[in-house]
Design a protein that fits this description.
The chain has 578 residues and is of the alpha+beta class. 31% of the residues lie in helices and 18% in strands. Strands 14, 15, 16, 17, 18, 19, 20 and 21 form an eight-stranded antiparallel beta sheet that branches.
Length: 578
Amino acid sequence: MRTPNFDLDNLTNLLLKSGFQASQVFAVDKDDAYLTYPEKNPALLVVKPYPSESDKTSRYSEIIKLIELAKYYDFAVHPYSKGANLGYGGKEPYDQNCIALDLSAFKRITNYKKTSGHVTIEPGVSQEAISTFLIKNGDIHIHDTTGAPKCASVVGNYLERGFGHTPLAEHVKNILHAEIITPNNKNEAPTHFVTSTDGTTFEINGRIESRTYSIGPDLTGLVIQNNVSIVTSLTIKLLKKPECFVAYFIPFSKEDSEKMIDTCAMLRKQNTIHSAAHIGNSMKTLQLLAAEFPELLKSYDYDEINKLIINFGIDDWTLSGGMYGTQNQVKAHIKDLKTAMKKLGLKPLFIDKRKLSFIQSTLSFSPKYNKALVKKLISSDSGLARKIGAKLALRKSLLELCKIKQGIPSNEFLRTIYWRNLHKLRDSVPNPSKDKVGLLWGAPCSEISSKDFQLITSVMNETCKKYGLESPISVTLINERTMECVLSLSWDRQKEKEEEQALACYQEIMLKCASMGFLQYRMSTLSNHFLNRQHLPLPIELPELKSYFDPCNVISPSKYQLVSTNFTKKNQENNKTI
């Protein structure tokens, strides 16, 4: 670990004398919108490099300059794309003596190949920007979108193994190549190179062409959840906009969960379920309902919450997904899904574009009257009326979810994390940090099996109950082998005891899951402090890449330290004083 030995004024002056403008060097934002739990290693300050437009210098010359300074003066650089790492640490570094490197000014979208379906994006490109770009350029392709805010970076999500909803949901598998800068030794200039030839461009007879294949070694995996380089762009695959899209929803009970999960495993392997289907529990649904009508929730008492779930007829679990393809392909998938569910006594609800249009029209007609009607129904003494009201209250969430499944980002699901902060919700786009909303996401992974599903969800439910907290769980069938069980732990940061309980609860759950072999697919800066090498036993160690590409340990020291001790090595010789 680095020893703090910096005079911030001197460090700022050093950056200014090195050519950075005063507007590019600023203090850490204590109201970072996406830092939703206590800071552990706040950055020294933030530097925002700008792209160089000069033909004589690299577009990334200011990034290279900062790396050179970091190597010489022995401080570290923690790069982030746009900082919307919600529930995992925001812009927070993993170690001390770090300058946060804000890459949001790099917003270029290039190399869009309509025939093969790929595009090159820089770290500052948001979900909304790529969606708008593709619509304006013919509406031929869609980008797999997550439930994160519209402003969230695409590159940042891909580098952290993020996932979405479409057949291209597993983002890491959609990277054709990355452009990266590695720091190298103190006496050696940083290197800027591509990790693979796939998706790279070349010129023939004055025409710019793109490769759709790779020759030689592919080093793209090097940049995923790693700290050996700064990624300046990714070239990624896009999904051809399907001729037909149909969403489906399948509610099922706790008693049916064993057969349902094992059936889903089979359906995922045979490609009937060919997108990242999500399985949400009753708490996830209740959160959506409470975000629309906060007054429904009078207490967080365990029995009172269960009473609400029963009164509104909320199902124990609901599987949701999408069918993509031609009309005939989708019909075949629907037939297979119906047949499999019939054996379990379950009936899927299918929603095509015609039904989506109808639902939209019911919401568009007198929104004020709509809300008043739904409020009256959900407050009714009649059980049937309450259940109908609850279904109607969820229309907006359903529409937004279906948009996400079709590549259109939404801010709608930011509201659900206000579960224990409902009184702070406003009509504007939420700012969780400013509103002191506590949130931690943890997602242990396993094989798609009913046994693992039961083990992981039981640990989450029982531990949350022990600490007096709720357990909203969403299980994603990310590919044909793996499911990711996401716990969305929410609390009010203005209540000291509640925050203390939430942090202890999160740590206990993640350690229990790790002890059973279920590690998180993605580390938060908090879990980085208590999950280490003992939780990831390997028969043979991983190669020592850090010491080769970043021997001065400039890039995000200590990040993902559970993977390898090589990530934390630091040669303290010849430290310079600023």
